[in-house]
Amino acid sequence: MECPHLSSSVCIALDSAKFPNGSPSSWCCSVCRSNKSPWVCLTCSSVHCGRYVNGHAKKHYEDAQVPLTNHKKSEKQDKAQHTVCMDCSSYSTYCYRCDDFVVNDTKLGLVQKVREHLQNLENSAFTADRHRKRKLLENTSLNSKLLKVNGSTTAICATGLRNLGNTCFMNAILQSLSNIEQFCCYFKELPAVELRNGKTAGRRTYHTRSQGDNNVSLVEEFRKTLCALWQGSQTAFSPESLFYVVWKIMPNFRGYQQQDAHEFMRYLLDHLHLELQGGFNGVSRSALLQENSTLSASNKCCINGASTVVTAIFGGILQNEVNCLICGTESRKFDPFLDLSLDIPSQFRNKRSKNQENGPVCSLRDCLRSFTDLEELDETELYMCHKCKKKQKSTKKFWIQKLPKVLCLHLKRFHWTAYLRNKVDTYVEFPLRGLDMKCYLLEGWFWALHSIRNS
Asked: 297-306 in b/e burial notation, b at 16+ Cβ within 10 A?
């Protein structure tokens, strides 16, 4: 949000002698000595623990609020308000009077100056540690961690992502996508695009909504983020540049509050798909797809007019069959998808604790079976039969005509009634390997039917 209190609160002196020693992310609260989530006051440079620890930063703000007795005290209070703090790990700014994270800056750019100063302190404190880790990586000739699964060794992303407020929803999706090898390699091999020039060229800056930069590319920032996650030269990477582009093109995700991870993934993939269709850095979309020989034409699924690496990896096709119960007319429709949203069957929606042994156990197969089972449409979803020329009762059934290379399944954790929205906290068991989808595929059903007839 845009905060109106910055001019009266941000008056910190950028003097390293006034700050504690060490990296800002490891500073300790001056009250409880906790080094978890240190926040620095942008008025007096004092360090306290943030709102998610013991809340001493908030108490520092409350103690600074002097009761107003006359107009002079009111004017004095406006000159020095201890209301704005900065998270020393994510460099996000929080105002206690607004009770929200701040996205704007003062006219003199004081917030950005403090942020850059803390970043410099952080970099200088970790220089020796980074050299040591780099030498270790060179000695082992590995730039990624290795994960052993059933005796086989698989490379996984070696760099973490810093949380920018409550952006764990974004970080979880980024880490998941970065470990899909074919998808990640495609973006890392794209040609780089320099979006900036002049004084900001080659320098990472913290962007805010108040900056008027319209020349943004989600594909480019996504590429940079994936490269940073796999280069292995640091333990954690802060994706603020990517988050700034997300703010620009996805207004629903502006701010630092919690968001839905599945919704973010859909928006991200959709915008990547649309941007890749329009070409990238002067190279046409078709030329980019041809460069990656592993993306064969048979594995592409067109959505919104064209195919990209997004649809080649995540794109599948559903067949929707609707049958009129009066005349028996069948209607078929083919719908492309990037993920499947599965309902948890109603018989499993009763609350069940982890240690509860009695009662049925819901599995992923139960959710898939509920999704593909024959369903009779209710009175509010009557089918317009072309033969009967009016709306009739009908049945509906989904088949998966084509599976994607990577199948994304989303469990619907909310159940809507006429007046309420209920959280579904049912535990769902699912296999880590070897999920058999044959019985949900159209081809698998025809194969089973053919085997029964021949027998």
From this structure: eeebbebeeb
How far is it, in rounded angstroms, from Cα 48 to Cα 19? 12
Residue 92 · residue 86 · CB < 8 Å? yes
Q: Which of 5-19, 98-112, 123-137, 187-201 has the highest mean pLDDT?
A: 98-112
> What does the alpha-carbon distance between residue 325 and residue 360 come to, in Å, rounded to a whole number?
33
Q: What is the DSSP letter of 66?
A: P
Place of tokens 């959505």: 303
CB 393 within 8 A of CB 325: yes
Give the separation between CA 165 and CA 34, rounded to whole angstroms: 19
- Rounded distance, CA 295 to CA 182, Å? 9
* Burial class, 88, CB count within 10 angstroms (exposed 0-12 / middle 13-18 / buried 19+): buried
Is there a contact between 252 and 269 (Cβ–Cβ < 8 Å)?
Answer: no
Residue whose token pair is 């292995």:
232
Residues 6 or more apart from 433 whose CB is under 8 A from it? 149, 150
Residue 281's identity, in one-letter code, is N
For residues 303 and 315, the answer to whether their CB atoms sit within 8 Å is: yes
Domains of the chain: residue spans and CATH = 5-66+80-125 (3.30.40.10), 158-191+217-278+307-314 (no CATH), 336-349+360-453 (no CATH)
Phi/psi of residue 334, each to 5°?
-110, 125
Contact 356, 425 (CB under 8 A): no
Cβ-proximal residues to 129 (8 Å cutoff; 6+ apart), any chain: none
Q: Please provide residue 220's backbone torsions phi and psi, each rounded to the nearest 5 degrees.
A: -65, -45
| Residues 372, 367: Cα–Cα separation, whole Å | 9
Q: Which two tokens stand for residue 403?
A: 């599976």
Q: What is the pLDDT of residue 37?
A: 83
Q: How far is CA 181 from CA 141, 194, 314, in A?
A: 20, 25, 13
pLDDT digits (tens, 9 = 90+) for 41-50: 888 888 998 8
Q: What is the pLDDT of residues 123-164, one digit of tens each?
A: 776 665 555 555 555 554 444 455 454 455 555 556 888 888
> What are the beta bridge partners of residue 390?
385
pTM: 0.58
Mind listing the pLDDT tens digit for each residue in 348-400?
A: 876 555 555 555 689 999 999 999 888 888 887 888 888 888 888 899 998 89
What is the gyration radius of the CA atoms in the chain, in angstroms? 27
C-alpha to C-alpha distance for 184 and 115, rounded to whole angstroms = 31
**Unique residue bearing structure tokens 């992923």:** 364
Give per-residue burial for 268-280: e unless 16+ CB within 10 Å, then b. bbebbbbbbbeeb
